[in-house]
Amino acid sequence: MIAGDILGERARLSPEKTALIYIPTGERLSYAELNERSVRCAQVWMESGIEKGTRVGILTQNCIEFIEAFYAAGKTGVIAVPLNPRQTARELEYVVRDAGLAALMYESGYAETVAELRRCTGIEKLFCVDGKGVAGSIEYRNACASVDPKRFHRVRCVPEDPYCLLYTSGTTGKPKGVIIPHRMVAWNAYNTALCWQLREDDVAPIVTPLCHAGGVGVFLTSMCAIGGTVALHRGFDAGEIWRAVERERCTLMMAVPTIYKILLEDKTFTAVDMSSLRWFISGGAPLPLYIIEAYQRRGITFRQGYGLTEVGVNCFAMNDEESRRKPGSIGKPFMYTEAKLIGAGGGEVPEGEVGELCLHGPHVCRGYWNNPEATASALDGEGWFHTGDKARRDAEGFFYIAGRSKDMFISGGVNVYPAEIEAELLLHPSVQDAAVIGVPHEKWGEVGIAFVAIRPGVDANAVALAEYLSGRLAKYKIPREFIFLDALPRTPYGKVIKPKLHEMYAGRKSTTNNAS
C-alpha cells in the first residue's frame, strides 16, 4: 500500500545514516533521530485532540520543526498546510478560512501575524515552536520533550488520503489549495530518486522555501526515499550556500535562474571548491546562456526541470549528455508518467507542433480543495491534468516548453509562443536576460515586443538581434521592437512579471505619442 510515511520507512532501513544537516546551527540528525522528532510531533498532535483529516498550518521559515511536522502528517493522516511567511495576516486569512485550519504551528517571529489570524478566524490551537509566543499557545518544544514516543501508533492511511494542501500563488484570483494525496508524495519521491538517478551518498542543499512545492518536492522527500542527505538553509545567503557546498561536499542543487545568478555574482563563486558537485537543475524560468557558460567553466552540468504543484514538481528527466545535446529541453517524461500534447480541438498534435501539455499518472493531484469547478477544468474524466503550458515534442521524444496558454498571442492568424522566442534570444552571446510579450497591432492583430538585458560590457542592438533570430525563427515570430533594460522584473522564484512589462510598454507608448 502506498502511503506517505517515507521518513518512517527510511529510518527503519537506514537509522544511522545522516538525514539532515541544519546549516544555521550545524545540527546533524540521523534518520532515526529525525524520525523520533517527527514521532514526538505526531504524538503531541494526537494528545492535543488533533486527529486524521484535521488541517494544521505551518508558519515558519525553513527549520527542523517544519520538517518534523511535514513528516508527522505522513504518520497521522493529519493534513499539513504550509503557509507563506512572507505574506501578511490579511493574505493568509483567506487560506486559513478556506483550509479550515484547526491548529497552527508557528515561529515566535510571526506572533503578531498569528494574533491577528486568531482574532479574525478564531483558530483554536496554537503551537509556538521556539518559545511562548501568543498568549495561550502551547510551547511545542516542551510538549515534544514530555511525550513518550513509544506510545505512538501510526495511523494507517490509504493512497488517496490527503497528505497536505499546497496553495498556489493566486496570480489569476484567490489562491487554490492543491490536494496532495499520500500516493502523490510517495510516487514523486520514488520516481525522482529513480529517474534522476539519485544516490545514497548524495548531499543536496535546500535553499528554496519549504512552504512551496519545490521546497518539499524536489529533494526533501526524494533524498529521504534514496537515503541521501539534505543540507537545510534557513533563508537565502549566497556566501553561506557556497561555504556549505564546500564544507559538506554537496553533490546536487536545485534552484531558479534568479538564485543561480546571485550565486554566480557572489564573491565566493570563483574560489569555492566545486569538485564534489555532479550537476545542477534549474526550473521556473528559462536559464540564460551566460549563466550556463559560467558554471560550465567551473565544471558544472546544468539540467532543465519541469513540474507544477498539481502534478509534482518533478515530471521529466534527462542525463548529463542529453542536457548538453538538447539545450532548452526538459527531457522525457518520468517512468509511469504519460504525456500528450493536444490542440484546440482536443486531439493530439503531430510531432514538432505546439500543443497543450497534459500529464497522467500516479503523481497527479486529486484536484483543488473546496473548488470543484477548478478541479473539473483541470482534470478531465480520464484523469489527465491539463497544465495550461504549451509544449512541443521532437522526433526523439524530448519535450520543450513553449510557454503558458495565457502568454500566447496571435499574429496574422498564427499562434506565437513567447517562450520559444525567449529561448532563442537567451542563446545569443550578448543577451543576459529576455522576455517577450504580445501587443496590439493594426495590421497583424498582435506582434511581439522583446525586453532585453544585455551582458555588461557587451554591445548589442535591435538590428543585430533581429538578424540573429531571422536565421532561427519564422519571420512572424521575430519581435517588431526590442526594448533594452538593465534588468527584467522577476518574482522571488524567478518568473518574469509580464504584467509589469505590459505596463512599461503602455507607458512608453503613451509618452511617445504625447511627444509627437
List the helices and strands and how they pair.
Elements: H1 6-13, E1 18-22, E2 27-30, H2 31-47, E3 55-59, H3 64-76, E4 79-82, H4 89-99, E5 103-106, H5 111-121, E6 125-128, E7 138-139, H6 140-146, E8 162-167, E9 177-181, H7 182-195, E10 203-206, H8 213-217, H9 220-226, E11 229-232, H10 238-248, E12 252-255, H11 257-265, E13 279-282, H12 289-296, E14 301-304, E15 316-317, H13 320-325, E16 332-333, E17 338-342, E18 355-360, H14 372-378, E19 385-393, E20 399-404, E21 409-411, E22 414-416, H15 418-425, E23 431-441, E24 445-454, H16 462-470, E25 481-484, H17 498-515
Parallel strand pairs: 1-11, 3-4, 3-5, 5-6, 6-7, 10-11, 12-13, 13-14, 24-25
Antiparallel strand pairs: 1-2, 8-9, 15-16, 17-18, 18-19, 19-20, 21-22, 23-24
Give keywords.
single chain; 516 residues; alpha/beta; Rossmann fold; Luciferase, domain 3; GMP Synthetase, Chain A, domain 3; five-stranded parallel beta sheet; four-stranded mixed beta sheet; 25 strands; 23% strand
